[in-house]
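Q: Start with the shorter request: fold the first protein.
A: Done. Sequence, then structure:
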Amino acid sequence: MDFIVSKSNGTAVVKTSVEKLNASNSSGLKAELVVLEKGGVNNIVIDMTATKYCDSSGLSALLVANRMCKDTNGKFVLCGLLPGVRKLIEIAQLDKVLTITVGQEEALAKI
């Protein structure tokens, strides 16, 4: 299982369990997000503590989550970024668009 999902009170925490979020598994993350949206979840935290690398398709999945939450007046928070992933997000200037926290507790407090 590449993604572990836990739900509570309209909020879902999606914890990645992949070292690389890339073209081979980002569609799985998008599928999880669609299931959450269909289930009425509009607040999502993605915890990427286990992920050391992310490519453009991984970034695309994160942007899908952000857009889905905004479209339903919810909140999206990204947490647990390792240095390589954080650097990629900063290079793409997505740190200006996404809400990013250090840990899951801080992320849940933003929701």
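Q: Next, the second protein, separately.
A: Sequence, then structure:
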Amino acid sequence: MFNVQCPRCGKMFSLPEAAPSVKCPFCGQDILMQQAPNQQAYNQQPNYAYGRPPGVFDEGPSGKSRGVAGLLAILLGTLGVHYFYVGKVGGGLICILLSIITCGIWGIVALIQGIMLLTMTQEEFERKWVNSMSTFPLF
């Protein structure tokens, strides 16, 4: 048995040596393992190449990047483009409506959202924005 770190949640857990692929018991992330000759198994997840954690613009398990969402919120937040990017069409339409009603002042909230998107972790982004049942996540 050997220890493996999940690329999604970062938690360590033990695996038997013969397991070619498993799911993380904490978050359910698929983890592909490969046994190298005379070496311990190593993680082949793309975000953990060379032992580095995922960056701001790396895609998460959903295929969405929090960095892209943050930049869209900062640059085009009054049009709700960041909501459309994460698949929240209703939120994007509400954002456009709020921009019209407030004569563009809604852009300040979108700017704050963009900064928060850039500073949160990928797990928080996935939980609050992508996997949430909320139509209009604010922060």
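Q: Describe the second briefly.
A: The mean pLDDT is 80. The first strand starts at residue 2 and ends at 5.
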